[in-house]
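USER: If only I could read backbone structure tokens as easily as an amino acid sequence. It would mean a lot if you studied the pair and described how this chain folds. Here is the record:
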Amino acid sequence: MTKKPFATAQEVTEANRVFHNAVASDYDKHLEIYHPVVIEYFRKLFQKWIFSHFSAEKPLSVLDVGCGTGYLEQFLIDRPVTVDGIDVSHQMLKLARNKFPSSIYPWFRYRIKDVYTLGEEDKQYDIVLANSFLHHCQDYRRVLEIMGRKVKKGGVLFMGMEPNRLVYKYLFFLVFLFRRLTLSKKDQCQPDGLNGELAEYHLYYGAGFSSRSLRKML
């Protein structure tokens, strides 16, 4: 594990805002999550672990935390839902709005919002989603608590695509190789080379997440 720099939760959030604004235009072009096999995998995950908790006719309120360019919304378009997508990057949200324009999807709402301030809002949701998001947050325990409190009784909290603790423990060479290969790409986007690492905080300065420990926290 690389030695952590001194950075507050808000400094890491600001690094995410700057970095993801810079890479937004190319963000979706090289992601493996758009491969048909991965999309089908996510579709089955949603059916098994999310939609199975609700009747097909029930209107559902959804919060997509760190929604980025709106990847998860493609799995919601066939359901009676209202979606509140939040992110700190206005460029990423611009792409999400282009994918799901309000003229066609008026029930999809995207807005600038810092997850740490979600606790100031009283609204709860049937479903809270966060995909490849938690590792971007310096204080992930606090974020997990905030997201958990946004779920209605009987609702679902779904988190996907986080670095696995077992990989960091037993296959650290792959983690090291990943960091070396991706760091050069981040340097091209951020001249100081620092914001890219801070934006992917727990990929570079963490030891992976355990699903068991996350469930225990919740």
User: Anything to note?
Assistant: The longest strand covers residues 151-160. The first helix runs from residue 9 to 23.
